[in-house]
Amino acid sequence: MSERVSIHGMWSSRLAFVLAAAGSAIGLGNIWKFPYITGENGGGAFVLVYLLCVAVVGLPVMMSEILIGRRGRESPINTMHHLVAEAQRPRLWVLLGWSGVVAGILIMSYYSVIAGWAMAYVFKTASGTLTGQTAEGIASIFGGFVASPEKLLAWHTIFMVMNTIVVSRGVRSGLEQAVRFMMPALLVLLLVMVGYAYNTPSFERGLEFLFTPDFSKISTGGVLTAMGHAFFTLSLGMGAIMMYGSYLPKGTSIAATSIAIALMDTLVALLAGMAIFPLVFANNLVPSAGPGLIFQTLPIAFGHMPYGSLFGSLFFILLVFAAWTSGISLIEPAVAWLVENRSMSRVKAATGVGILTWFVGIATVLSFSEWAFSFNFFGEMKSSGVFDVLDILTANFMLPLGGLAMAVFASRCMSRASVVDELDMGDGILFRAWYVLTRHVTPVAVGIVFLHGLGIVQPVIEFVRGLF
Ligand code: PHE
Question: How far are the Cα atoms of 94, 266, 309, 376 from residue 215, in angstroms, in the given order?
């Protein structure tokens, strides 16, 4: 049988795929979100649960997602159509593709607004506005900025246009070129930041916060957030990685590439944490400052180090690029579907999806100013409204459920022969490990975390205890 290829084109090499998938995985999730949710959830114990989720759940799900994509070679919706027919399974499974497309647009709608913050900070650091400011001064500049809907909207618009352009250009010329140089440069700059943090008196305290688990500090909602973040940071559960897998030529090891991607992603997140928390403690800030954390801490370092505005603007430029290479993967599934089913040109499809996402993003823009409200999430007060609702809905629910469904589909619905063929690692111990993890461990782990997060596990434990 000759190999099927995607109508959208294929990656030029295995390296191109790894770079693109790593580009999708490494983004705001690692540098902006990981530190602030770690801060909100008490540090070490949260980090440990997150790392466990990446290794035990994330990695096998990533392999499932890539193999499904490569087998189907189409957008997640049509890939599911195709594989459901092949395996003679209920059509309901196609919903998995749809939920991915919706999740991608919802995530992109707020992702773009936060990427806009990073763009604004390129200029704020370069112009020296933040130089020589106290921690309070920097915090109040941030507060003033996010309360201005016009500014947020302008940056959100620019970021959406940037993404629409790259996605319009298609797989090779658009997506592939974007990642080649950005990732290594980002890594180097993060190391410079960790180097700066190392020289503050609070470096050890920062590391202790990150790496010494204290389980009394993590709540039930925190465990769910840690698991959700494992999916979010690896771009799993919504079809981005499935889409990228569909452009992957046969003969590339799915296991080896997945491990490489997960390792790079984790490394970047941990480095970001190591750069940020020492600054938090050295400046008497609170780790639980929320989504503004990196915008309130890193500028302090840039304001004091030699060539700070240069390093600062470079850092935010790279952060914007990291967000850009993730953003394109969030809308690619929707665009590919339009091209396949509505025979639209790529440019038209990308423009349509871009405009739709831009509109949805207005809700997040407003949620930091006029539409801000507080609500109760598992007994914890959260504020800033729509943004948090979207974040929790997608990262804590849609992605883990989507990822779970992919693992179950690959290991329980597709024929064992086709999965063995696609994974191409024989039928030995490695394959069996993947099989057991996706068939049994992933469903049980995700299930328990959900029930736990919804407050159902605790009463059961207490009930059982009461019996003895
Ligand atoms: N993984 C990206 C990040 O960490 C976000 C993302 C999520 C991208 C889901 C695609 C799909 O920033």
Answer: 39, 21, 39, 22
Record the pTM: 0.93
pLDDT digits (tens, 9 = 90+) for 384-418: 578 888 998 999 999 999 999 999 999 999 999 99
179 class by beta-carbon count within 10 Å (0-12 exposed, 13-18 middle, 19+ buried):
buried
- pLDDT of 132 reads 86
For residue 235, report the distance from its CA to the centre of ligand 1, in Å. 4
Q: Which domains does the chain have, with CATH numbers?
A: 14-467 (1.20.1740)
3-state secondary structure of 377: strand
Amino acid at 116: G
Residue 129 phi, psi dihedral angles, 5° rounding: -55, -35
Looking at residues 75-92, what average pLDDT do you find? 95
Asked whether 83 lines ligand 1 (CB < 6 A), one says no
How far is the centre of ligand 1, averaged over its atoms, from the C-alpha of 381 (Å)?
A: 25
In short, whether 27's Cβ falls inside 6 Å of ligand 1 is yes
* pLDDT over threshold 70, residue 372: no
| Count of CB atoms situated within 10 Å of the CB of 448 | 14
